[in-house]
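Bug report (template v2)

What were you trying to do?
Predict the complex of my protein with 6CS.

What happened?
Run completed; filing so the output is reviewed.

Input:
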Amino acid sequence: MMTVATDYYRSRVATPMALIPRVEPVVYARGSYAQALSAEQLRSYEENGFLVMHDVFDAAEVQRYKQELQRLLQLPELVGQPDTITEPGSDAIRSLFKVHERSELVRNLIQDPRLLQVARQILGSEVYLHQSRANFKPGFTGKAFYWHSDFETWHVEDGMPSMRALSCSVLLTDNNACNGSLMLVPGSHRYFVPCLGETPEQHHKQSLKKQEYGVPSQEHLTQLVDEGGLVTVEAKAGSVIFFDCNTMHGSANNISPWARSNLFMVFNSVDNALQSPKYGLEPRPDFLGYRGAITPIAG
Ligand code: 6CS
Ligand code: FE
């Protein structure tokens, strides 16, 4: 196991540290492992740390996924489950994890070449699923996700060794400037942001409702935004956002009347399997970071 001293990407530290330059590629094997994106799309992903692909799924497909999530949300056995995350202070469901195990439709979605081939091409290898979830942000009441890099959490709390994973968010509602859409900091994926504060035990029970550790300082966020700017995704239902595991992102409360929901899955390279979490932390449950035998997703 790596010790604290030899971990290049140190975080949850007691005193402020400078940004740490990324050492891994963003696009692996020069994008030659699979053929899904054009050279221009790959270049844009590499430069910005994300790519929005419009109209990937048609209206009928989106409708099917939405109905499927409605069906899942009504299952009585979901109530009180650890992988059903409610909003702070209410019973409203914020995130539902392991959707690919709960639903055959979603299980098929992760094998869809429109997603899988992109993940393989960018990560330069076969891939497996690290995490899947549905996020719900209803109109008027949907709550924010504070700024974070997913890799920071996955590295510290799940022991993910390298920046060789990506997320894809399939939009099930239109996302616009008003309904709590994803905001990303272009270029932020090139720096690891060491975060302040010792991780509390069972941190995920709190962080999935409202994250307070593993978030950047205001100084670091300002520095990244001064350099790269800030982008709000505006795209129709059926579009897909691919983003690097280390891209800084967040989203605001949704006080508009328009719901925002998405299906979210994380592909990790089969060559980047989880190790022990850092700093003696207990591994998080499987629904957050898969630790079983690694079989590449077929399809
Ligand atoms: O815990 C996770 O795996 C993801 N969820 C949150 C709220 N932050 C880190 C990461 O994106
Ligand atoms: Fe995230």
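What did the reviewer find?
The pocket of 6CS (ligand 1) is lined by residues 131, 145, 148, 150, 153, 204, 207-208, 211, 288 (CB under 6 Å). The radius of gyration is 18 Å.
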